[in-house]
Amino acid sequence: MNPKLKSSFSSFKNISVDDINKSNDHPRRLMAAIENSVSSLDDPETFAGYVLELGRRHARLKFKLSKSHFTDLRKAFICSIKESLTSCWRSEVEESWVLLFDFMTVIMVKGFNSKC
Fold it and tell me: Running DSSP on this structure, what letter comes out for residue 15?
């Protein structure tokens, strides 16, 4: 949805989006992270710790973080989830996914900005 965003990720700069998707590595890890997050929603400490560590891992990639990245990522994320849940998609479902994404963003940014 936003090809310029790809250039912010040093490991993806010289790789086409098609090749990233074909490799199945990053998309698979991303979906595993979402699955892990949703699975741990009933355990707030585990959930927050997991997302905090995701932020720390992204900080090690020397990614330059900006608010617009998360706005663009949320838009793409919601669009992707909506495609998977077309038959049961309603405004309440979208609102829940947006809230989850925004919460994860806040925790990831804390991890990203932490010195640990």
Answer: S
CA 50, CA 35: separation in Å to the nearest integer? 12
What's the pLDDT band for 52 if we cut at 50, 70, 90? Answer: very high
- Distance, in Å, from the CA atom of 82 to the CA atom of 97, rounded to the nearest integer, reads 10
Classify 70 as helix, strand or coil: helix
Distances (CA, A) of 48 to 15, 101, 107: 31, 13, 7
CB contact at 8 A, 63 and 8: yes
Cβ neighbour number for residue 107 with a 10 Å cutoff: 19
Contact predicate 3/17, CB 8 Å = yes
d(CA 3, CA 16): 10
Taking a C-beta distance cutoff of 8 angstroms, is the pair 59, 116 a contact? Answer: no
pLDDT digits (tens, 9 = 90+) for 99-112: 988 988 899 899 98
pLDDT tens digits for range 1-48: 666 666 666 666 677 777 766 665 766 777 788 888 888 889 989 989
